[in-house]
Design a protein that fits this description.
TIM Barrel, globular, alpha/beta
């Protein structure tokens, strides 16, 4: 089923989980465990990334995992799809394989540059595409996938300004993106501000917050430095106080993310997209608590 229809027609907010293709047997086992445990929570959909660089092997693995999720777990699944390292002919060939595999949903992204190349130095492959908007146009012209796209409440690293970044986001929607998923963030005010500016700019599709439960201090510092997200000073102080206590960090991370998600849903967010890192305990705890609290029942209509 198309994800845009599921988001629009659900009785509760759209809860979704993001996974990545594992590279080792241990990683495969972690993914299988997470899928089995999180499937019990009946998410609206799940998504599977390409991984940094988007190699041919990773692309094929993404398709295989999405197909397996649909067949083995009965979950609607979305394949991430990027421009990196691919000509238009390559992109069409991958889209053909996705269609043949029964995939109906695609998250269209420019993609992360290969290791060692800064975001502003990224260049398209020969006979390839430069922007995710072009990728969306390609998909919408010749294929019948439901297309989602990314957005950046704290501005994409390669964007010239917040205004230009918002303009590019509008171009994605105009090209055919039916919903947006945000980059991770830890201060809800940046989401509220972004949504307000997006609505003023004429962007009317659902904007789903992307949330990453914190389980490791060094890891979250690395992730935020790579994507340009900020960590509020108070949150960072509490994390540093627990940095030598992994269990305490994970417990605090669950508490913070639960509080963050509850406030977002109470203020009208259409759902939550969880960046799971192929692990289930934190996400299971957060989503279960949210369903007990049901903060969307007191949501403010925006």
């Amino acid at each position: 089923m198309r994800i845009d229809e599921r988001i629009a027609g659900g009785g509760e907010p759209a809860f979704s989980f993001e996974f990545f293709p594992p590279k080792t047997p241990e990683g495969e086992a972690n993914l299988d465990t997470a899928l089995a445990e999180l499937a019990r929570l009946d998410p609206t959909y799940v998504s599977v990334t390409y991984g940094a660089g988007g190699s041919a092997e990773q692309k094929q693995k993404t398709i295989e995992i999405v197909s397996r999720i649909k067949a083995s777990h009965g979950l609607e699944a979305m394949a991430h799809f990027t421009c990196v390292g691919a000509s238009v002919a390559d992109l069409r060939a991958t889209l053909d394989r996705m269609r043949e595999a029964g995939i109906e949903n695609v998250l269209a992204l420019r993609g992360d540059p290969p290791a060692g190349i800064a975001a502003h130095e990224w260049q398209a492959a020969e006979d390839g595409l430069t922007y995710s908007r072009e990728l969306i146009e390609l998909i919408r012209a010749d294929y019948d996938f439901a297309v989602g796209a990314a957005c950046f409440p704290e501005v994409h690293l390669a964007a010239e300004s917040a205004e230009s970044d918002l303009r590019y986001t509008r171009e994605k929607v105009d090209a055919g993106a039916r919903f947006l998923i945000t980059q991770l963030f830890f201060d809800n005010t940046v989401y509220y501000d972004f949504v307000a500016r997006a609505r003023e700019a004429g962007i009317d599709v659902p904007i789903i917050p992307g949330i990453m439960p914190i389980t490791n201090v060094a890891q979250i510092r690395r992730f935020t430095s790579m994507c340009g997200a900020s960590i509020p000073a108070g949150l960072l102080r509490e994390l540093d106080l627990r940095s030598d206590q992994p269990d305490a960090v994970a417990d605090f991370g669950v508490a913070y993310a639960t509080m963050q998600c509850a406030e977002l849903l109470a203020n009208g967010a259409p759902g939550i997209h969880f960046y799971t890192l192929n692990r289930s305990p934190s996400t299971r705890a957060i989503l279960s608590a949210l369903r007990v609290m049901a903060p969307w029942r007191r949501a403010v209509t925006a």
